[in-house]
Design a protein that fits this description.
Blueprint (H helix, E strand, L loop, with lengths): L3 H10 L2 H13 L4 H21 L5 H24 L7 E7 L6 H12 L3 E9 L1 H11 L3 E5 L7 H12 L5 E5 L5 H7 L3 E2 L3 H11 L1
Parallel strand pairs: 1-2, 1-3, 3-4, 4-5
Helix pairs in contact: 1-2, 1-3, 2-4, 3-4, 4-5, 5-9, 6-7
The structure holds CO-5-methoxybenzimidazolylcobamide.
Length: 207
């Protein structure tokens, strides 16, 4: 019988082959896909997030763990759909208009996915109306924005306003190197997270 703790540990090591193999074996042994996801993969990703937050590991280790998670998700996704397992919530995520930085955003995307959320990644240089349209189309609960330039931060305020103008109940969250909690309060965003691991905690707390 596959030990889900061993699956979590392989994920933390970023050992993609073992993660995929153990996921396949757990399913073939009859474990529920949601159990493999929650007790194996998400549990492992949770530890990756905590270590990253504590500066015990860095961006490359997180990317390698995320790659392993992605491999396992390819195996799991069809089974989760067949079992009717719904993601916790849908998040529309993008880098705001005028801003082309996406390394941090991609990390946030991977961590949110690892946290059990469905991420609709709308990319970089995203205009406020595109965020709003994506939230409508995908019936998102959260609209998450990244900005790396002080000059593009005001675009976050424009998105918050556009979401309000559209009369949507979508909650907005922001992050990126120059962004602060004070700025989030100033523009009326529902939340701010300083790093990708905190973004998962924040997203869940906003739901
Ligand atoms: Co740019 N750049 N860049 N750049 N670049 C910075 C950001 C800069 C600080 C460098 C510097 O001058 N010291 C500076 C900004 C100054 C400022 O405004 N304060 C800068 C500049 C000026 C520019 C250009 C204007 C340069 C030029 O052309 N003259 C230009 C702008 C282009 C544009 O966007 N329109 C530019 C271009 C580029 C490259 C294309 C070359 C490249 C981007 C490649 C890419 O992303 N695909 C690039 C890079 C790589 C950087 C640095 C070196 C690294 C950024 C990065 O990826 N960090 C950066 C300097 C630095 O930070 N040391 C710099 C790693 C990443 C994991 O961290 O993105 O902060 P970060 O994400 C973190 C958190 O912030 C948080 O979680 C992540 C993980 O913990 N987070 C969120 C991010 N988004 C979040 C969202 C959340 C929650 C948390 O909720 C939704």
């Amino acid at each position: 019988m596959v030990d889900l703790q061993a699956l979590a540990e392989a994920l933390i090591r970023g050992d993609r082959n073992t993660v995929v193999k153990l996921t396949e074996r757990a399913l073939s042994e009859g474990l529920a896909p949601a159990e493999v996801l929650n007790r194996g993969l998400i549990a492992g990703m949770d530890i990756v997030g905590r270590r990253f937050k504590a500066n015990e590991i860095y961006v490359p280790e997180v990317l390698i763990a995320a790659r392993a998670m992605k491999g396992a998700m390819e195996v799991l996704e069809p089974r989760l759909k067949a079992a009717g397992v719904q993601p916790v919530a849908t998040v529309v995520l993008g880098t705001v208009k005028g801003d082309l930085h996406d390394i941090g955003k991609n990390l946030v995307s991977m961590m949110l996915t690892g946290g059990g959320l469905k991420v609709v990644d709308v990319g970089i240089d995203v205009a406020p109306e595109k965020f709003v349209d994506a939230c409508k189309i995908h019936k998102a609960q959260l609209c998450a924005m990244s900005a790396l330039l002080t000059t593009t931060m005001p675009q976050m305020a424009a998105v918050v306003q556009a979401v309000k103008d559209a009369g949507m109940s979508v909650r907005t969250m922001i992050g990126g190197a120059p962004v602060t909690q004070t700025y989030a309060d100033e523009i009326g965003a529902a939340g701010y997270a300083p790093d990708a691991a905190s973004a998962v905690d924040l997203a869940k707390s906003l739901l």
